[in-house]
C-alpha cells in the first residue's frame, strides 16, 4: 500500500468544507482551555504566595535590613506590599507611569532630592500612598512618576542574593517599560584634593554599573542615565550663580547626546552639519566636562549689570572652580561607561546641579516625566477584562456548536457504517461493527465525554440494530450448525467428561460435543446486561470464546450492550437434547497417584526430578477435576436457560451426576500440591557465605502462614481412606530446599579462591606501604595488601562467619552426609584463604626496601628509622597486627592460623613491654650508632690502631667509607655482622632479614661509591705521574730519543717507590696475588669496581719490578743468554773473520769458528756503560788482526741501543718499533734465574770488512742468538 497518497487524501478530507465547524470548535475549545488553565494557575500561585509570605513586623525591619544575605523575593515582596495599598482601579494607570531608579551613597541627599522635586507627599494625602517604611527599598508615587530609591546597603552589596532579589523585582516591571536611572552624587565632596577620592569614585561607578547592567540585560538595550549633583549650595558661588540664572530665566541644564539622538539627526537630509557638531560636543562632554560651564560665560556681562558686586564675584568664583569640579565628574562617568563585552554601555543623557535652597525646582527637575496627563487618562484599565469576557462567551458558543456538529457527524458516520455492514456482513465479527457501539466510539472520541449528548434516542436505536445483527449474522447461524451436528453425529452422552491425558491439555476447558456447545450458545443468545446469564458470561468471557470459537470482543460487546432478549426468536430451529450420562476416570489410577505421594512423604529429601514428575501428574488430575466443573457449569446454564427460552425446548435431559472426584478435599489437595514449590534462593555470584548464611537463616526462620500448618486433607476413594498433612509436606519441601541450596552453592564455587567470606571487594580499605610518598622516595616499595587480607576483615567477616555458619549448619534439618560435605568445603575454603593471606603479607614484608642515592639521603633515612613513626616500624606494626591472630577454640580458625606459622618471628621481634618493643629498640640503637659514626669527624692517623694493616688506608676514607670498608673486609664489628648477630639472637630466619640489613647495605654501597671515586682519582694521578711517562721514553718506546732515567724507573718499579707505596696505601685492600698474578679481591655484591687498567698495569709493573730489583730492593742486572753464530766462510781474496764479540760494559761474549755455546751476558743498567758488536779479521799477507765494530756511547741503556741497530732479514721485535728479522729457533731461558724458558731469537748487525789491495769488499753479518726477547721486559700494556 502506498502510504503517501493515503496520507495526502486523509489530510485533504480532514480540511474539507464539511469539517470547518469542527475545526472552528476545536480551536475555540483549545483557546478556552488555555485561558482557563492560565487563570487557575495565576489564582493558585497568588493564594499560595499570600499564605506563605508573611510581612515582617516593623520592630524586625532594622534587623532584616542588617542581614547580609537577603531572601531573593524580599524586594519583590516590598513591591507587592506597595501595590496592595494602591486602589485596584488605578493600578493599571500607575504601572504606566515613568519609572525612575535612584542610586546614591548614604548622605548624598537622595531623599531630599525626591522630596524637593516630586509631589509624593501630596499624592499620599489624596489616598495615593507611597511605601517608605522598609529600609531595603523605598517607593515614591508622584505625579506621573514612580521612583524606587535603592539604599546604600544594597548598592554596595555585590552578593548573589542581592543580584537575584533585584532581578526578581525588575524583570516583571521593565520587561516592556524603559526605566531611567538617576545617580545622586554629593557635589560638595568634589572639592576635595585627596588623591584617594578618585579611587573612591571608581569603586562607586563600578558598583552602580553592576546594577545598571542588570537593567540593560532585561531591556536588551542601553539604559539612559541622569546624573544629579546635590548639596551644591555648599560650594561657594553656586547659590549666587543659580539665582542669577533663575532671575534671568536661563535654565541650568546640561545634556548629553546619545546614540539614538545621533540617529534621529542623521535621518534628516539637511542635518549633516548639526550631527557632526552634536557628535563632537558629545565626545567632548563625555571625556572632559571641565568646560561644560563655558556656554554661560556669555551671560557674565548681564550678571555684572544685574548682580551686586559681592554676589558677582562669588558667581565668578564658582565658574572658575567649575572645571576642577567637573573634571572629577568626568572621571566618574568614564568609569561608569567603561566598555565591557558582556554588557551594554549606559547612556548618560543629562546631569543636573541642585541645592536645598533652590527657588525654581521645576526648571531643574531631574524627575521630569515624558508622559503627559492626557496619555495617562487614555489608559483603559478594564480593557483586558472585557476582551477576556468576550473571548469566554465566544468560546462557550463555539463549544456548544462544536459539540452538536461533532455528535451529528458521528451519528451520520455510524449510520453509514451500519448500512454497509447490513448490506455486506463480514464472515467474522470485526473492528467495524465494534466501533459502531456507543461505549467504543466514546473511547475513540474523548471529546464525547465532555460534549453533551444531543442524540440519545438515535444512539439507542443504533445499539439495538447492532445486537440484532450480531444475533442474525453470527449467533443464530452458529446455533443452526450445532443443531444439525446433533442430528448427524451418533448418539454420544451429552456432558461427557473429557479425560486429560497429556500436558498439552491442561486447563483447556474444551467441550467438543455439539450439544454442550449449543447450551453455551443459547446462554449467550439470551444473555442481557442485567440478567444472571449476562453476569455469568461477563465473568467467563474467555471460556465462552474458547468453547464456541467466537470472538471474545463480540461476546463482551453483546453482553454489555444487549438490553433485552424479548425480541429473540427461535422459530424454525430444530433444537433437541439427549440424556446425559457422566463418566469418570478409573479410580485405581487416582489411588496409585495418592499412594505415591504417601511414599514421598516418608523420604528425607525430595529430588528436583521427583518433584517435577509429581507436578506433571498433578496437572493431569487437575484437568480431570476441571472437566467435571465444566460439566457442572453446563448443568447450571441449563437451569438458568429454563427461565429465558420458550417452553418447547426441553433441557431436562441435562442433569447433575454424582462422582467421588467431586470431593472438595481432593481438589484442595491437588491445588495444594500444584501451588507448592521446591524453589530456593538463587545462589548469587559474589554474595559468598554472607548470602548463603542469610538465606539459611531466613529458611530456618520461615514459618508457614497461620492455618496452613494445621491443614489436613482426608478423603476416600475406591473404598480406601487417604489422609495427608500439609505440615509434613512443607517439612519435606524445606529439607529438600536446604539440601539443594547447599549442593548448588558448593557446585557453583568448585574453583575456590578463599574469598567467599566477602560479599564485596570494596568493603575494607587496602593496606598500602609508603602511602604518603607512593614508594618512590628513599623508602621504596609500594606493596598493597588487599583489604580482605587484613585482621580487620578477619574480625569483622571471617571469624564471625566461621563462628555462626557452622552453628547454623549444625541446626539444619538435613542429613549428616550433607552437613559433612559442606563442612569439608568450608575447611578447604579457609585453608585457601589462609595461604593467600600469608602470601599477601610475605610480599608486603619483602617488598620494603631503602634507596638512598647520597650520604645526605642515607642520614635522613637513618634519622627517620629511629623515630617512633618510622616507615620500618609502621611495616612491622602492620605485620604484627595482621599476622599475630588468636584462633581461640574454633577449629576453622586454627586451620587458618597454621598458614601463618612462618610469621612467628614477628611475635619475638615485636614483643611489647610497657608500650615499647625492646628487641626493635636494640636494632634502633645499632642504627643510631651507625648514624653517629657517619656524622663523626675524620680521626687523626695517629689515633688509629697501628696493628691494623689497613690503618693508613682507612685514614684516607670518610666515616661512611670506613663503615663500608669494614663490611667489605668482613670485620667482626662491621654493622652487617652486628645486625646479623642481633637477628640471630631474635631467631629471625635468613629469608626475612633483608628488611633490617637494607640501611646497612645502603651505607655499604654509598661508601664503596666514595672509595671507587677516590681510587679512580688516585689511579688517574698515579698513572699520569708514574706509568704514563714510561711509554714515551726509551727503552719502553724504541723510537724515542729520550731515555728513561734510573730515578723514574725506581719510582715506578721499586718496591719502596712511589707507585708501590701508593698501591699499598690505596689499592692493596682490594687486590690479591695468586700465582704471581694480581687479581681483584671479591667483596659483597662484587664491589668496588676497580679502574679499568689497574690490574693490567699492576701485573706489568710487578713483572718489571721482579726483573729489575731483588727481594731486598737492590738493583738486579739484566742477564741474557747469548750464543754466537758461526763466523762467515772464508772466500778467496777476502779477509778472514777470526772472531766475533758482543760487549755490554765489562761483560763480553766471543764467537770463534768452533761449536758455539750459550754464554751469560750481564747488563748493569743502574749505571752508564758502553756497548759494542764487531769482528776481528786476518789476512794472508799480514799477521795483524783488523778490528771492525758497531759501538754505542756510554748510557744506562747502551745494550738496547745496540740491539736497536740490528739489521737485515733477521731483526728484533721492539716496543713501538718495527720487526727486523727476529726468528725463533730453539728454547731460551729466563734472565731472572738463568733457567731455560722460552725461544731464542737471532740478531744481525752488518759490518763492512777491511779492504784488500785497495778494493772494497761485500758486507758481512755478525750474528748472535739471544734467549727470551730482551725487549719483552719493557713492553708494558697501555
UniProtKB/TrEMBL annotation:
Keywords: Membrane, Transmembrane, Transmembrane helix. CDD domains: TM_EGFR-like. InterPro entries: T6SS_TssM-like. Residues 1209-1233 are annotated as: Disordered. The chain crosses the membrane at residues 20-44, 387-407. It comes from the Bacteria. The keyword Transmembrane helix applies. The keyword Metal-binding does not apply. This is Type VI secretion protein IcmF C-terminal. The lineage of its organism: Bacteria, Pseudomonadati, Thermodesulfobacteriota, Syntrophia, Syntrophales.
Amino acid at each position: 500500500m502506498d502510504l503517501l497518497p493515503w496520507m495526502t487524501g486523509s489530510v485533504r478530507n480532514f480540511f474539507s468544507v464539511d469539517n470547518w465547524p469542527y475545526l472552528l470548535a476545536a480551536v475555540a475549545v483549545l483557546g478556552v482551555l488555555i485561558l482557563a488553565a492560565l487563570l487557575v494557575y495565576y489564582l493558585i500561585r497568588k493564594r499560595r504566595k499570600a499564605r506563605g509570605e508573611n510581612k515582617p513586623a516593623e520592630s524586625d525591619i532594622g534587623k532584616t535590613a542588617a542581614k547580609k544575605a537577603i531572601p531573593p523575593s524580599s524586594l519583590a515582596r516590598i513591591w507587592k506590599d506597595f501595590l496592595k495599598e494602591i486602589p485596584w482601579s488605578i493600578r493599571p494607570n500607575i504601572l504606566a507611569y515613568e519609572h525612575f531608579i535612584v542610586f546614591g551613597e548614604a548622605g548624598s541627599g537622595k531623599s531630599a532630592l525626591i522630596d524637593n522635586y516630586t509631589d509624593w507627599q501630596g499624592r499620599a494625602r489624596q489616598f495615593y500612598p507611597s511605601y517608605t517604611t522598609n529600609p531595603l527599598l523605598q517607593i515614591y508615587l508622584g505625579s506621573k512618576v514612580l521612583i524606587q530609591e535603592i539604599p546604600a546597603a544594597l548598592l554596595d552589596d555585590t552578593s548573589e542574593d542581592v543580584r537575584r532579589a533585584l532581578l526578581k523585582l525588575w524583570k516583571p516591571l521593565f520587561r516592556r517599560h524603559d526605566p531611567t536611572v538617576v545617580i545622586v552624587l554629593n557635589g560638595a565632596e568634589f572639592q576635595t584634593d585627596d588623591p584617594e577620592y578618585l579611587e573612591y569614585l571608581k569603586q562607586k561607578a563600578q558598583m552602580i554599573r553592576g546594577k545598571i547592567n542588570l537593567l540593560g540585560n532585561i531591556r536588551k538595550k542601553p539604559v539612559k542615565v541622569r546624573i544629579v549633583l546635590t548639596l551644591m549650595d555648599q560650594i561657594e558661588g553656586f547659590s549666587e550663580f543659580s539665582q542669577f540664572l533663575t532671575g534671568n530665566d536661563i535654565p541650568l541644564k546640561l545634556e548629553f547626546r546619545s546614540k539614538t539622538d545621533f540617529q534621529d539627526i542623521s535621518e534628516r537630509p539637511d542635518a549633516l552639519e548639526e550631527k557632526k557638531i552634536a557628535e563632537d560636543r558629545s565626545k567632548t562632554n563625555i571625556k572632559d566636562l571641565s568646560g561644560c560651564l563655558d556656554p554661560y560665560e556669555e551671560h557674565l556681562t548681564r550678571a555684572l549689570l544685574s548682580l551686586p558686586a559681592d554676589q558677582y564675584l562669588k558667581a565668578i568664583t564658582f565658574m572658575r572652580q567649575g572645571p576642577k569640579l567637573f573634571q572629577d565628574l568626568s572621571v566618574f562617568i568614564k568609569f561608569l561607561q567603561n566598555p565591557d563585552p558582556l554588557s551594554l554601555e549606559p547612556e548618560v543623557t543629562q546631569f543636573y546641579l541642585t541645592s536645598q535652597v533652590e527657588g525654581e525646582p521645576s526648571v531643574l527637575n531631574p524627575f521630569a516625566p515624558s508622559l503627559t496627563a492626557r496619555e495617562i487618562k487614555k489608559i483603559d484599565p478594564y480593557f483586558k477584562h472585557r476582551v477576556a469576557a468576550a473571548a469566554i462567551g465566544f468560546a462557550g458558543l463555539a463549544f456548544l456548536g462544536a459539540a452538536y456538529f461533532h455528535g451529528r457527524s458521528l451519528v451520520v458516520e455510524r449510520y453509514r457504517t451500519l448500512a454497509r455492514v447490513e448490506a455486506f456482513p463480514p464472515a467474522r465479527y470485526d473492528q467495524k461493527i465494534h466501533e459502531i457501539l456507543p461505549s467504543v466510539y466514546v473511547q475513540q472520541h474523548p471529546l464525547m465525554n465532555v460534549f453533551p449528548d444531543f442524540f440519545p434516542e438515535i444512539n439507542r436505536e443504533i445499539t439495538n440494530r447492532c445486537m440484532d445483527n450480531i444475533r442474525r449474522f453470527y449467533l443464530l447461524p452458529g446455533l443452526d450448525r450445532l443443531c444439525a451436528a446433533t442430528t448427524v453425529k451418533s448418539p454420544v452422552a451429552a456432558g461427557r467428561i473429557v479425560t486429560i491425558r497429556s500436558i498439552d491439555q491442561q486447563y483447556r476447558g474444551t467441550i467438543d460435543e455439539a450439544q454442550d456447545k449449543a447450551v453455551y450458545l443459547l446462554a449467550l443468545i439470551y444473555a442481557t446486561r442485567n440478567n444472571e446469564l449476562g453476569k455469568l458470561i461477563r465473568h467467563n468471557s474467555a471460556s465462552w470464546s474458547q468453547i464456541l470459537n467466537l470472538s471474545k470482543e463480540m461476546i463482551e460487546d453483546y453482553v454489555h450492550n444487549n438490553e433485552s432478549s424479548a425480541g429473540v426468536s427461535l422459530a424454525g430451529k430444530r433444537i433437541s437434547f439427549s440424556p446425559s450420562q457422566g463418566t469418570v476416570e478409573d479410580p485405581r489410577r487416582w489411588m496409585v497417584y495418592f499412594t505415591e505421594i504417601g511414599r514421598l512423604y516418608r523420604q528425607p529429601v525430595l529430588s528436583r526430578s521427583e518433584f517435577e514428575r509429581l507436578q506433571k501428574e498433578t496437572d493431569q488430575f487437575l484437568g480431570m477435576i476441571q472437566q467435571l466443573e465444566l460439566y457442572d457449569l453446563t448443568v447450571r446454564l441449563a437451569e438458568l436457560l429454563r427461565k429465558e427460552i420458550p417452553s418447547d425446548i426441553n433441557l431436562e435431559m441435562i442433569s447433575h451426576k454424582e462422582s467421588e472426584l467431586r470431593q472438595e478435599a481432593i481438589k484442595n489437595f491437588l491445588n495444594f500440591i500444584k501451588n507448592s514449590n521446591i524453589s530456593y534462593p538463587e545462589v548469587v555470584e559474589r554474595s559468598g557465605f554472607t548470602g548463603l548464611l542469610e538465606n539459611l537463616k531466613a529458611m530456618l526462620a520461615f514459618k508457614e502462614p497461620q492455618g496452613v500448618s494445621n491443614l489436613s486433607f482426608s478423603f476416600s476413594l475406591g473404598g480406601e481412606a487417604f489422609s495427608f498433612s500439609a505440615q509434613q509436606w512443607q517439612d519435606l519441601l524445606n529439607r529438600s530446599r536446604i539440601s539443594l541450596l547447599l549442593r548448588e552453592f558448593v557446585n557453583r564455587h568448585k574453583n575456590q579462591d578463599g574469598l567467599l567470606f566477602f560479599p564485596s571487594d570494596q568493603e575494607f580499605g587496602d593496606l598500602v606501604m609508603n602511602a604518603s610518598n607512593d614508594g618512590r622516595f628513599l623508602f621504596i616499595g609500594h606493596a598493597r595488601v588487599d583489604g580482605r587480607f587484613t585482621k580487620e576483615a578477619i574480625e569483622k567477616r571471617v571469624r564471625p562467619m566461621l563462628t555462626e555458619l557452622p552453628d547454623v549448619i549444625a541446626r539444619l534439618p538435613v542429613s549428616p552426609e550433607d552437613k559433612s560435605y559442606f563442612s569439608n568445603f568450608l575447611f578447604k575454603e579457609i585453608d585457601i584463604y589462609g595461604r593467600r593471606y600469608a602470601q599477601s603479607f610475605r610480599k608486603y614484608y619483602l617488598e620494603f626496601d631503602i634507596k638512598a642515592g647520597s650520604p645526605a639521603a642515607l642520614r635522613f633515612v637513618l634519622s627517620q628509622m629511629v623515630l617512633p613513626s618510622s616507615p620500618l616500624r609502621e611495616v612491622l606494626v602492620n605485620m604484627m597486627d595482621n599476622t599475630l591472630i588468636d584462633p581461640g577454640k574454633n577449629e576453622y580458625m586454627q586451620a587458618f592460623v597454621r598458614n601463618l606459622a612462618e610469621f612467628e618471628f614477628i611475635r619475638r621481634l615485636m614483643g611489647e613491654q610497657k608500650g615499647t618493643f625492646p628487641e626493635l629498640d636494640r636494632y634502633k640503637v645499632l642504627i643510631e650508632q651507625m648514624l653517629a659514626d657517619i656524622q663523626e669527624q675524620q680521626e687523626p692517623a695517629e689515633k688509629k690502631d697501628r696493628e691494623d694493616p689497613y690503618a693508613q688506608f682507612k685514614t684516607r676514607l670518610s666515616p661512611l667509607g670506613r663503615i663500608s670498608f669494614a663490611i667489605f673486609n668482613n670485620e667482626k664489628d662491621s654493622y652487617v655482622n652486628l645486625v646479623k648477630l642481633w637477628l640471630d639472637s631474635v631467631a629471625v630466619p635468613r629469608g626475612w632479614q633483608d628488611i633490617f640489613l637494607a640501611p646497612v647495605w645502603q651505607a655499604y654501597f654509598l661508601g664503596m661509591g666514595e672509595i671507587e671515586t677516590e681510587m679512580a682519582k688516585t689511579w688517574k694521578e698515579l698513572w699520569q705521574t708514574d706509568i704514563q711517562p714510561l711509554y714515551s721514553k726509551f727503552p719502553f718506546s724504541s723510537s724515542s730519543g729520550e731515555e728513561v732515567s734510573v730515578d723514574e724507573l725506581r719510582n715506578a718499579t721499586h718496591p719502596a717507590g712511589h707507585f708501590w707505596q701508593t698501591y699499598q696505601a690505596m689499592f692493596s685492600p682490594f687486590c690479591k696475588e695468586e700465582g704471581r698474578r694480581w687479581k681483584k679481591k671479591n667483596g659483597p655484591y662484587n664491589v668496588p669496581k676497580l679502574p679499568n687498567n689497574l690490574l693490567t698495569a699492576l701485573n706489568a709493573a710487578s713483572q718489571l719490578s721482579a726483573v729489575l730489583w731483588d727481594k731486598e730492593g737492590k738493583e738486579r742486572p739484566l742477564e741474557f743468554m747469548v750464543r754466537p753464530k758461526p763466523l762467515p766462510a772464508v772466500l778467496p781474496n777476502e779477509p778472514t773473520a777470526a772472531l766475533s764479540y758482543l760487549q755490554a760494559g765489562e761483560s763480553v761474549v766471543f764467537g770463534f769458528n768452533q761449536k758455539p755455546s750459550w754464554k751469560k751476558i750481564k747488563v748493569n743498567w743502574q749505571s752508564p756503560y758502553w756497548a759494542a758488536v764487531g769482528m776481528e779479521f786476518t789476512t794472508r799477507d799480514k799477521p795483524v788482526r783488523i778490528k771492525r765494530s758497531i759501538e754505542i756511547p756510554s748510557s744506562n741503556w747502551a745494550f738496547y741501543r745496540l740491539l736497536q741497530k740490528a739489521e737485515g732479514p733477521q731483526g728484533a721485535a721492539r716496543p713501538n718499533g718495527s720487526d727486523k728479522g727476529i726468528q725463533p729457533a730453539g728454547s731460551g731461558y729466563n734472565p731472572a734465574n738463568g733457567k731455560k724458558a722460552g725461544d731464542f731469537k737471532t740478531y744481525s748487525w752488518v759490518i763492512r770488512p777491511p779492504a784488500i789491495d785497495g778494493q772494497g769488499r761485500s758486507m758481512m753479518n755478525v750474528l748472535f742468538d739471544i734467549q727470551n726477547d730482551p725487549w719483552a721486559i719493557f713492553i708494558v700494556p697501555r
